[in-house]
Amino acid sequence: MHLWQIMVKLSAFDIEQDSTLWTSFRSGNQQALADLFLAQYDKLYRYGFRLYSDEDVIKDCIQELFLKLWHKRQSLGEVREVTPYLCQALRRTIVDSLREKSGRFRLWTPGDEERLEVTFSHEDFLISQQIDDEQRRRLTAALNQLTKRQREAVHLRYFENFEPGEIARIMNLSDQSVYNLLYRSVQALRDNFFLLLLIGANN
């Protein structure tokens, strides 16, 4: 069996397992929610910290998110792909937290997302032994020249391995908008895109 086939099977197993935990916690099983928290925490933290690089804020937002899920469990619907759903919910929770800290108690608007910004640094790529310092510098500079939404889409696609449809759900965009973001990102990164693929494949 090829490696990619193994990865697809493992991914399908994770999705099924998370979906089972989701169903169980909605029925009032606290242990299922705890297991879901443990299974999802690392990915949620990585994504949240990418959006807003304050460790305490992100940890608080993840805890707040799961508390809200528990209190609202009876009104929640069935979710097949739990990770994109939770990433989208965390994104909104971070925005709400920042609004609350700034004393802006009003209806949420898309403009509230302006404080969320994925940025890349040289250190992000130190784990890769396949590129040298100059290539890391070039790739970091090229990524940070992208728009905010392009950087977020690139992070989700090539560092977290989400499919375009999942990214659309997380970022609250249409599928076509995500395809456009990724296409324009690839065009802008055309001289460095192979390096991005090398690194993304090893994350």
UniProtKB/TrEMBL annotation:
CDD domains registered for this protein in UniProt: Sigma70_r4
Positions of the RNA polymerase sigma-70 region domain: 39-102
Keyword Transcription regulation part of the UniProt annotation: yes
GO term, biological process aspect, one: DNA-templated transcription initiation
RNA polymerase sigma factor 70 region 4 type domain: residues covered: 137-189
Keywords annotated in UniProt: DNA-directed RNA polymerase, Sigma factor, Transcription, Transcription regulation
Pfam families reported in the protein's UniProt record: Sigma70_r2, Sigma70_r4_2
A Gene Ontology molecular function term of the record: DNA binding
A GO CC term assigned to this protein in UniProt: DNA-directed RNA polymerase complex
UniProt-listed PANTHER family: RNA POLYMERASE ECF-TYPE SIGMA FACTO (PTHR43133), RNA POLYMERASE SIGMA-70 FACTOR ECF SUBFAMILY (PTHR43133:SF46)
Family in the record: Belongs to the sigma-70 factor family. ECF subfamily.
NCBIfam families reported for this sequence: sigma70-ECF
Protein name: DNA-directed RNA polymerase sigma-70 factor
Organism expressing this protein natively: Persicitalea jodogahamensis
